[in-house]
TrEMBL record:
CC terms in the record's Gene Ontology section: Golgi apparatus
Stated name of the protein: non-specific serine/threonine protein kinase
Keyword annotations: ATP-binding, Kinase, Nucleotide-binding, Serine/threonine-protein kinase, Transferase
PROSITE patterns: PROTEIN_KINASE_DOM (PS50011), PROTEIN_KINASE_ST (PS00108)
Domain of life: Eukaryota
A molecular function (GO) term: ATP binding
Enzyme class (EC, first level): transferase
Organism: Ignelater luminosus (Cucubano)
Length: 318
């Protein structure tokens, strides 16, 4: 065989080879990249023995604080067991526990793979032809999301908030059941802010970990003396419901134009399309949650109650 032929074979071999990852004693082959965020990458992987596919989340840590945040996420996966919250299959930590200058470590999390993708993906496909979801289907999915959030808000001894609820953080099963994912932003729901330093710290965390078009107004401009609670999630849920009706958050257009999302959110005003297949009842449910003043915003039990009441009314009218 000539040198050129051998060179081509070697190049093809390199091109076709797949990266292998070990999580504890299990060997996974990386198939393709599914997504990338500010703090992590998600790959589609295959267990080389069972041939079953999973999503592998990899977080690169550049500091001890990064490690703590990533390991805390794993603890939340282990703690939160609900049919509408994603489960953790396996996890491992690679690297030094004491990061030195310019060194990094990695945290791997093996999660279920949902071939339908996210609610965001599903809505985006339907948006191309303005194929609106039926309101009954919207409520079915939305109420299951609410139940997952209620489970977090009712957690003992300390209530938890997701802090980054959005359509791209909800996976869909083959049967279109929602599964809330990405617990990297989860935190104790109630935060007592005492002074400008506390306020700035929380505001900075929100800017890093809470997506703008779904972020509650009190997280854009945190007051120096206040209490932030789980009702940040209620605002985000209103944006999710709006997106389920109209394919995008009410503040996505502002974000895409490059205008100030903070000003739009803090005004508390949203517009509904004039040409709509949805009744005022659907809009009222969104507005019920979308209160600019968090003290006027309902808690999760009231949102579930109102959503189920609306669904019953629809069923009785058939």
């Amino acid at each position: 065989m000539n040198t050129l032929g051998l060179s081509l074979i070697m190049k093809m071999g390199c091109f076709c080879s797949r990266e292998i990852i070990y999580v504890n004693n299990t060997k996974y082959e990386i198939k393709e990249k599914l997504g990338e965020g500010g703090f992590s990458t998600i790959d589609l992987v295959e267990n080389t023995f069972t041939k079953k596919r999973y999503a592998l989340k990899r977080i690169i840590c550049h500091s001890i604080d990064d490690q703590k945040i990533a390991l805390q996420e794993i603890e939340y996966y282990k703690k939160l067991k609900h049919p509408n919250i994603i489960e953790l299959i396996d996890s491992t930590f690679k690297g030094s526990a004491d990061i030195v200058i310019n060194a990094t470590s990695e945290v791997y999390m093996v999660l279920p793979y949902y071939r339908r993708g996210t609610l965001h993906d599903y809505l985006e496909i339907r948006s191309f032809t303005k194929n609106y979801l039926d309101i009954k289907e919207i409520l079915r999915i939305f109420i299951d999301i609410l139940r997952a959030v209620k489970y977090m808000h009712d957690m003992k001894p300390e209530a938890l908030a997701h802090r980054d609820l959005k359509t791209s953080n909800v996976c869909l099963t083959d049967g279109l059941s929602p599964v809330v994912m990405d617990l990297g932003s989860v935190a104790p729901a109630k935060v007592q802010v005492c002074g400008s330093q506390d306020a700035q710290k929380l505001q900075d965390i929100a800017a890093e970990r809470c997506s703008m078009p779904y972020r509650a107004p009190e997280l854009f401009n945190v007051k120096s003396y206040c209490v932030i609670d789980q009702r940040t999630d209620i605002w985000s849920l209103a944006c999710v419901l709006y997106a389920m009706c109209y394919f995008k958050s009410p503040f996505d257009a502002v974000y895409e134009r490059g205008d100030s999302v903070a000003l739009a959110v803090m005004s508390g005003k949203i517009n509904f399309p004039e040409d709509t297949p949805f009744t005022q009842d659907a809009h009222d449910l969104i507005l019920f949650m979308l209160k600019e003043d968090p003290t006027e915003r309902p808690f999760i039990d009231d949102v579930i109650s109102k959503s189920e009441e609306y669904r019953r009314a629809l069923e009785n009218n058939v």
